Amino acid sequence: MADDELSDLRRRRMEELQRQQMNQAAAEEEMAARQKQQEAQIQMILMQILEPEARERLNTIKLTRPDFAQAVEHQLVMLAQSGRLRGKINDEMLKGLLKQLTPQKTDYKITRK
Question: Is the model's pTM score more than 0.90?
Answer without folding.
Answer: no
